């Protein structure tokens, strides 16, 4: 735990990318494999579930520290972070712990099965063997609210330096539905296992928002392909070994949410991976995103719900074809293969459509089409360079989103609340109201 806590302290104390990469690289070169695996998991938002609710954590921390609960709450209000507040109020101790990160995490997972008194004793004993910052890190893992300024891209960059494995390969390895309880560092990072790749998606390529006067920097408009940007669920649909897998951009396997996509097996060959948007679709037109919400939260998708909220896959890119990774081929070539595939399919029967591409003679023509986005229920336009490869993560240069301007409204600010953590000294949560017959009526809340 000491080494992991030191790593977090180094990451937290700098905003320089190279220093963060250096700290992570050194850690990955020296830590044991179990600790490395859990570090990757924690920084990838695969944290263990919280074993103790925050009410009990507050109560037990105040009992050990000997302060009243109201004083704890006042302190928490100023500090803004529960894990840090607990770490600060607990008494110091001469004892120390040599447990590793993976040992602590294993114990935290096991804690879920223990009775309340044993949970209390475990926390009491372990809080008093850690220094302030180790306690803070321990509490962050315990509460499941571990957030640190390390992106997935930055972590894979450090892993690449530590292992010598290409960043894109590592990004692919870290995709999918893995947990430290079901794999090892060696199997996840170092080994090559074809069966593990059967359901794995590719890392998503994300677009940047256009900048001011972007037309001047993008060169001839003939180099660009345009599509409408729809408000749906960005997904990859994988057809391999006579199975269909549907992944969301958040790396969640959502195959069971869209049983109608099993029909893709009838018309799409194995060794195919399609990038697209899941959209509500009825009466021949794209529906409102709110309709999708009725399906996202459901554990079981009934026949009635399938009928009430039909969906389609709006396909706009092809990442794998005939079992070959074709992401490095030009977008125009990938798109040509995709066009040929979808045109052979009865979209109304199968539920997969081709995202319409557009070409314009001038930027003025493109701007006119963008202005029509709202009445077409789209968010604006996507711009893709015709010779662009399919990259990993958010990269500038080849893919841009040109969204329509938002509506504006004049409102009255009625409340402001403090933020949490580093933003505890700032007012970040706002409530807005509108006048209605001389009365202020709340209509929105916003976070800054």
Structure notes:
Helix content is 37%, strand content 21%. It is of the alpha+beta class and 448 residues long. The protein folds into 3 domains: 2-143, DNA ligase i, domain 1 (Orthogonal Bundle), CATH 1.10.3260.10; 205-403, 2-Layer Sandwich (D-amino Acid Aminotransferase, Chain A, domain 1), CATH 3.30.470; 412-447, no CATH class. The strands form 4 sheets. Strands 4, 5, 6, 7, 8, 9 and 10 form a 7-stranded mixed beta sheet that branches. Strands 2-13-11-3 form a 4-stranded mixed beta sheet, with helices on one face. Strands 14-15-16 form a 3-stranded antiparallel beta sheet, with no helix packed on it. The mean pLDDT is 90.
Number of domains: 3
What's the number of extended β-strand segments?
16
Terminal Cα separation, in Å? 34 Å
Q: What is Rg?
A: 25 Å
What do the pLDDT scores average to?
Answer: 90
What gross morphology would you assign? Answer: globular
Please, what is the CATH homologous superfamily of the largest domain? DNA ligase/mRNA capping enzyme
Oligomerization: single chain
Considering DSSP H and I runs of 4 or more, what fraction of the residues is helical?
25-40%
CATH architecture of the largest domain: 2-Layer Sandwich
Note the main sheet.
7 strands, mixed
Q: Structural class, from secondary structure content?
A: alpha+beta
User: Which percent band covers the strand fraction?
Assistant: 15-25%
